[in-house]
């Protein structure tokens, strides 16, 4: 939005300093007049012809006072200009850093030296903001690159299958259709996961009262056929734990947590309320996890032989990333810890409601 040009902050401070100094000088002269000169007799011949009178003192003092006022005004302007420049120098550093960041360079930092004051606090806050922006943009770039790669893979496979079918008309079409269906289903799952992750990050849902115990039971009932097929023991324990949020997103959160395990394991879902906090705890008996791997589990597209699920149901690598996004959108916390024996312990804490 265009704005009319105005005085700079340095010039405003300079005029303020000079104005205050001039006012102080004028007040001092007024005090001299009120408390000294007014009591001197006003006699053209002086006091008994010996002492000077008010007339002589005024005509002698007035030119010197005028010179002093001019000196104070000039001194106030020059000194105020230098002092204002020195005081506003940190703002110049912050302005230059902001312009550098506006041109796309987020790696620049101010690193203002000196003692702690308001400008130093502003500089540190600006550096912290630049660090968070740089980290967030780098994360978004990695996410976009990974998403593009993941989406490109099933499309490339589909094109290869179609090319093979076109070059070899005698190939079994049933097998081709099955493989294309599997590839298409994976692409759809990935797209839905990306949309869900984006929705969780935005947090634009209308909160409602949700009981995590009922959500856990619904998720277990939905996944029970798959659990029986893969020989998974699924238990839901605990009591009511109410929170405010989206029932659909919370159901997806629990489903992803329960669904994230190898075949032949055991999953225990426990819900409870602790004061003003509702707790959901999911414990499984998967592979042994190295402690250094646990912090990476919520990163998007992190999957493979080192992740919890390594069979044909390995998914798209967004399960725990979606969980983390949904928990964050509900102002909760997500804790991941490897179990002493094997598997993973996931604890979700959400704000409770009566």
Mean pLDDT: 79
Please give the number of β-strands. 7
* Range of helix content: 55-70%
Cα distance spanning the termini: 47 Å
Q: Give unreliable regions as ranges.
A: 304-314
Number of helices: 7
The spatial strand order of the largest sheet comes to 2-4-5-7-6
Q: List the helices and strands in order.
A: HHHHEHEEHEEHEE
Strand coverage percent: 5-15%
Structural class: alpha+beta
Topology:
Elements: H1 9-35, H2 54-102, H3 118-167, H4 173-202, E1 208-211, H5 212-229, E2 233-238, E3 242-245, H6 247-259, E4 266-274, E5 277-284, H7 319-329, E6 333-338, E7 344-351
Parallel strand pairs: 2-4
Antiparallel strand pairs: 1-3, 4-5, 5-7, 6-7
Describe this structure in words.
The chain has 354 residues and is of the alpha+beta class. It is built from seven helices and seven strands. The protein has helices at residues 9-35, 54-102, 118-167, 173-202, 212-229, 247-259, 319-329; strands spanning 208-211, 233-238, 242-245, 266-274, 277-284, 333-338, 344-351. The strands form two sheets. Strands 2-4-5-7-6 form a five-stranded mixed sheet, with helices on one face. The protein is elongated. The relative contact order is 0.07.
